[in-house]
Structure formats: C-alpha cells, structure tokens
Amino acid sequence: MNSDTRWSAQELRDALTRYEEELRAAGKARNTVNTYVQHPERFINWLEGRYVPVQSGPNWGRGTSAQDAGLRLNSTGPPRYGPASFTPDPPPAGTGVSAGSSRYDPLGWYLAERQEAVVHLSFVAIERIIGAPLPDSARRHRPWWANERAGNHVHAKAWMGAGRRTANVNLNAGTVDFVR
C-alpha cells in the first residue's frame, strides 16, 4: 500500500456509495448492506469532526441535545449534520416550501427544485441531502414513508410541502420514488 495516497472525505463518500451499489448488486441482505455502509459513514463523520462517540443509555435519543447525541455543533451557528461543504439553499421562491427548522427541510428544498415528475432516490442519497442518517424505522417500516401531514411527521411534511408523494418504497433496495 502506498502511504502517500490521500483521500478527501468526499472521495471516501463516493467510494462508499460505489461499494454500497456493489453490495446490493451482489444480492447482500438489506441489513448486511446497512451494517457494511453505516459504520464507515460514521467513521468519515468522525474524521470530519461531525461525530463524537458518546455513551448511550436506555433513553438515548429522547430529549437529548445534538451534542448529547454525539453531533458536534458548529461554533458559528446551528448544528452541522451534513458535509462541511454542504449548506442547504433556502427553499425556492414560489414553491410553497417553508424555511422551517426540520432536519428534513433540505430534502423538501431538493425535491422542490427538481423538474422531473418522478425523483428516484436511494436512502443513502437522502441521508446525504439531509446531512444525517435516516432513523432505523425508515429502513425497516414502510409506514414511515406514508404521505401523512397529521401528527409529528415532519419528514412527510418536507416532501409533501414540495408537492411530492412517496411511491415504490423498496426497503430491500433502500430506494423510494417521489412523484408529483
């Protein structure tokens, strides 16, 4: 191995995406693919200073702050979950998409900018867009992808606010279509 080889975080992420595609093409089980991909993703986040390991407990994730959850805060503003170079643009004017405070807002903005009738995205691509991992329930339970505005479904509100509905959710392949 050449010790002079250097990879940027983006090059590592691109290689990881290619690796995930090869795993899926080889017929690996969804859970296997998730395990093989999520651990290196966390390592890359750690390299960039966007992840700090923390002790988890029985109530981890309930009412914890971003810092408590192992996410480092940007010293000049709100938490940074995405790549250091990623700053989501505000929602396009006239789209009806609000500039709220949901971590899924960048997905709504992304979808609002797309002209095609169907936007096909992998779960990994969605995670890159929102700059954070999807919850486990998104990978395990089809109802997470339901088109519901009621309750606390901020994720559904993001794509529905962009005039989209989900279709063709494939939990095994880790893909979903957003249709007009």
Question: In words, what does this structure look like?
Answer:
There is one protein chain. This protein is mainly alpha-helical and 180 residues long. It has a domain at 86-180. Helices cover 36% and strands 9% of the residues. It contains 6 helices and 3 strands. It has a 3-stranded antiparallel β-sheet. A hairpin with a 4-residue loop joins strand 2 and strand 3 (175-179). It is globular, with a radius of gyration of 17 Å. Mean pLDDT is 75; it is low at 55-89.
Strand order of the largest sheet: 1-3-2
Rg, rounded, reads 17 Å
Q: N-to-C SSE series?
A: HHHEHHHEE
Q: How many E-type strands?
A: 3
Strand content: 5-15%
Query: Which residues sit in consecutive blocks of at least 5 with pLDDT less than 50?
Result: 55-89
Could you give the distance between the termini?
Answer: 49 Å
Average pLDDT, rounded to a whole number, is 75
Alpha plus pi helix count: 6
Features:
mainly alpha; 6 helices; globular; single chain; 180 residues; 3-stranded antiparallel sheet
Briefly summarize what is shown.
By secondary structure, this protein is mainly alpha-helical. It is built from 6 helices and 3 strands, in the order αααβαααββ.
Write the layout of secondary structure elements.
Blueprint lengths: L8 H17 L4 H18 L57 H9 L4 E5 H8 L5 H5 L13 H8 L3 E6 L4 E5 L1
Antiparallel strand pairs: 1-3, 2-3
